[in-house]
Design brief:
Largest sheet: 8 strands, mixed
CATH architecture: 3-Layer(aba) Sandwich
CATH class: Alpha Beta
Shape: globular
Strand content: 5-15%
Helix content: 25-40%
Radius of gyration: 18 Å
Oligomer: single chain
Number of domains: 1
Length: 298
Amino acid sequence: MIRGLPEEEYFASGHRACAGCGGAIAIRHVTKAAGPNTIIVQATGCMEVVSTPYPETAWKLPYIHSAFDNNAAVASGIEAALKKAGKKVNIIVFGGDGATFDIGFGALSGALERGHNFLYVCNDNDAYMNTGIQRSGATPKYAHTTTSPAGKVIPGKIQFKKPLPFIIASHRSPYVATASIHDINDLYAKVRRGLSIGGPCYLQVYSPCVPGWGYDTAKTVEIAKLAVETKYYPLYEIENGILRITHKPSENKSIESYLKMQARFKHLSPEQIREVQAAVDNEWARLLEMEEKKCKLY
């Protein structure tokens, strides 16, 4: 149930995102949660391309487009200038796999170390979608991409997804969280919490991609929900180094139901599905233990 959402829209309809685009859903609701007193910094990527084809724009907020590798650096400069001017404005940084997990990670790490006050939002869609669905540090194990094609030589990507929220938390970020586009109330709460805390905060939003994952356009929200309910994509927050799981599924759903909805995983053997299930179970057990013991990450 979605309750009490703001009516004002800051990401206009009519943009050129694919039907069923999870990233567009994420941006729409992150900006609604942030409100009008907000500046957007966005790296090159799918969501920049579909929302800012010159001379048009879908953005109703002050907006600047940055490169993959300097997204967080641009936001740092804006934050420093506003701070010097004594102005309090929300700064939200949007990035995908390139700007966040890989190409732009150096700038993001530097901004975190310096302690700039912004909310970094990663549209997590598991690959470099804008440039042709290439594998990235965000791509999960066994996913088929154009640079890790499933075939006789390799069974898709052979490495696990980079645990970026924990890497961010290890930078002593005061607030790190994961969210999903299927749970809008949780997403809103985490955006507002991140904006209310001084310092560099990070929110990773699971945003399914129709062409990259290979599923029917009507199934985006269902797939996002199933990822959470199967514990494939756990929802949690790490505040001041302490982890809290924000959603605990009421039943143990098999990961197979999630994997079989997507063409990128259609090649998986029963043995590989069991391996993915074991990895999911182990990670969930680790999160439960961290929560129970209140393990401090820094």
